[in-house]
Design a protein that fits this description.
Length: 233
């Protein structure tokens, strides 16, 4: 049974979410003490988090970073903030998706199921016990790690999927549509700007390994990983 952790201070919404999620067989736990969110998260060990932005004491971006420090489980923001920058900030702080209030419960459920499939189900299964190396850059798909020489950086599930596609086709152009198709099976619900944010995050992870120009944008077409950084030895 999948466990979903709800970090939301609107108790009426929490009750509605829990009722809806229980109908689909999910186990839920909601935060009531916003001083100890991280401790409650660790004790519950959820498969997915639903997280609001406006919270008592610390905002959702803070708790997203805290969770990302100890877990790669999917995090979906649910917030009344509709601004583009709010969504960008959520993704840059480690979220996997963003749902604006008021929302359609069927769409929210589709996003939740999609994230769970990618992280633990059908799509995730394709990545078990597999790694890929291009010019000394190694992607450990199972452990969500990118390494070069003695340096390494942790990745989210979505970042792994983007790099997996780019590294498999290193030197060739990977279209935006191909990335959307591979990463988001429910792309009808995805804002195109979301891919831009994730590509920016992938570039930052590459830069952490001293690869600064390896991922190129091909205007009007997509992206290309050009392995001209050497073997890292």
């Amino acid at each position: 049974m999948f466990k979903i952790f709800i970090i939301e201070d609107d108790q009426s919404l929490v009750s509605l979410l829990q009722d809806y999620l229980h109908k689909f067989g999910y186990k839920t736990q909601a935060v009531h003490n916003f001083e100890t969110v991280r401790e409650q998260f660790e004790a519950f060990a959820p498969h997915l988090v639903l997280l609001d932005v406006n919270l008592p004491k610390f905002d959702g971006y803070y708790w997203c970073r805290q969770i990302r420090g100890i877990s790669t489980c999917p995090i979906l923001f649910i917030s009344a903030r509709e601004g583009k920058m709010d969504q960008v900030m959520a993704l840059e702080n480690g979220a996997d998706d963003y749902i604006t209030k008021p929302f359609d419960y069927e769409i929210a459920m589709a996003k939740i199921k999609s994230q769970l499939r990618r992280a633990y189900g059908t799509f995730a299964g394709n990545f078990n016990e597999r790694s890929l190396t291009v010019s000394g850059l190694t992607l450990d798909v199972e452990r969500l790690v990118l390494s070069r020489g003695n340096d390494r950086t942790d990745l989210s599930h979505t970042e792994v999927k983007i790099l997996d596609e780019l590294m498999q086709k290193a030197g060739a152009i990977v279209t935006r549509d191909r990335l959307l198709e591979k990463i988001w099976d429910d792309q009808v619900f995805v804002d195109d700007n979301t891919l831009n944010v994730y590509v920016t995050r992938v570039r930052k992870k590459l830069a952490a390994l001293e690869i600064h120009d390896g991922l190129q944008t091909v205007r009007g077409q997509g992206y290309r990983l050009t392995p001209n950084w050497g073997n890292g030895e």
